[in-house]
Specification:
mainly alpha
Length: about 130
Amino acid sequence: MEETHNGFNIKSRLVSCCKKFHLVDKLFSISLDNATANTSAMQFLKEDPSIKLVLEEYGLRKKVIALDTPTQWNSTYKLLHDAIAYRDVLTDMYNESRTTDGQFITNGHWSLAKIFHDVLETFDNATHIFFLCL
């Protein structure tokens, strides 16, 4: 990038590249370090009209999906909880990107995810009750 590395310019370059390569409706996740300019870029990106259009198409709101973190007790439950709520868009985006290898997300995969979610929900609820008692 020749221009200054501030939040607005980073967001503009990212959106420009996504539009150029027809990735706006296929963008699933963005991972960055916590540099101030990157944080600022994400704030600008959240307000970008092209991102809003994709969310509106699926009837969704902006959501940061929880990560599965081995050092955080209920992170798998939180990840599954968020993913299940966004299953239609996640399925469409993943399946559209996998046309060459035949690996697709199916209803069977979502059924398994729901079973794991329901089992882990018991532990999540117990954790919250336990911490309320402290």
